[in-house]
Recover the amino acids of this structure.
């Protein structure tokens, strides 16, 4: 049974119950993810896709999408297929990132990585199938959303996933291993490898609801701030938290001799920078105090999280 859904619409400033909102929205997302991978052939591919997609995770990306949809006045489940698509793209990127040719990791979301269970070929294909299913979710499985809005969402998701986003950031990240990287390059990597998809989450949620340009501009500023802050905290957690809490191998950045914010700036200055970025992100949403409550709380969650 799903918990009662607390939405931004019924929220007076200061009275928002974030814990209830987060858990209720996460449960809605889990149910939609499960339904999106119903029985189909080949069963072995479906199993590999479900193994990673339904392995838990914070579900931050779909929740950001739904929160932006509500901020823009959207109601009901119209943005859920897009939210599911975003988690599918994210999960694909984790599967591919863990492959021996990339980060070569064997632990993700507290379980053996996809290729450890299903082999490299199947893991690559499961990632490919999740990426393409993501676009199907938007283009084919989003009933009731005007086609021109869906086209804008497809454009946003393709840019965030490809060379101008995830792939471009991952390439520069791989090329930078073992190199002395300056802050500009580090920011490029993070804004593309991590920030682009987080931006797509809030922008596509707003697009499904038909948000006006002014709100979309504010959401771009918000997304840039939380995107960089998210990655700074990720770098800090990699250094300071153990694998069993993270659900992935801790200390990887040191082992791979990666440039990180703590390496370039130190732990204290990195945290200060993350806090400043979150403050900037939240300031962009000040004109919408009531409905922005979930996005404001999500920004704080990004810097206070322990995994
Ligand atoms: C093939 C189109 C295509 C893209 C793949 C592999 C790759 C290109 C990019 C790597 C992107 C990547 C893995 C970035 C790291 C982002 C990150 C910090 C992930 C951790 O996110 P959390 O903490 O994880 O939200 P959970 O498990 O909670 O969802």
């Amino acid at each position: 049974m799903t918990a009662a859904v607390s939405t931004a619409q019924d929220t007076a400033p200061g009275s928002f119950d974030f814990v209830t909102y987060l858990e209720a929205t996460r449960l809605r997302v889990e149910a939609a993810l499960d339904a999106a991978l119903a029985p189909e052939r080949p069963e072995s591919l479906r199993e590999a896709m479900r193994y990673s997609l339904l392995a838990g995770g914070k579900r931050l990306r779909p929740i950001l999408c739904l929160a932006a949809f509500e901020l823009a006045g959207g109601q009901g489940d119209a943005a859920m297929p897009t939210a599911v698509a975003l988690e599918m793209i994210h999960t694909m990127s984790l599967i591919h990132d863990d492959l021996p040719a990339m980060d070569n990791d064997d632990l993700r979301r507290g379980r053996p990585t996809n290729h450890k269970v299903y082999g490299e070929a199947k893991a690559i294909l499961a990632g490919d199938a999740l990426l393409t299913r993501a676009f199907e979710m938007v283009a084919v499985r989003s009933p009731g959303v005007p086609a021109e809005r869906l086209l804008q969402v497809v454009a946003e998701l393709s840019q965030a996933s490809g060379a101008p986003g995830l792939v471009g950031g991952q390439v520069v990240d791989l090329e930078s291993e073992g190199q002395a990287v300056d802050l500009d390059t580090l920011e490029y990597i993070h804004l593309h490898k991590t920030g682009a998809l987080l931006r797509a989450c809030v922008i596509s949620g707003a697009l499904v609801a038909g948000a006006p340009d002014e709100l979309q501009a504010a959401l771009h500023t918000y997304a840039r701030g939380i995107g960089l802050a998210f990655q700074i905290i990720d770098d800090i957690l990699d250094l300071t938290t153990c694998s069993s809490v993270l659900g992935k191998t801790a200390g990887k950045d040191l082992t791979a001799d990666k440039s990180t914010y703590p390496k370039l700036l130190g732990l204290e200055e990195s945290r200060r920078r993350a806090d400043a970025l979150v403050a900037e992100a939240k300031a962009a949403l000040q004109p919408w105090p009531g409905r922005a409550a979930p996005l404001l709380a999500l920004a704080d969650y990004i810097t206070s999280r322990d995994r």
In short: The first strand starts at residue 107 and ends at 108.
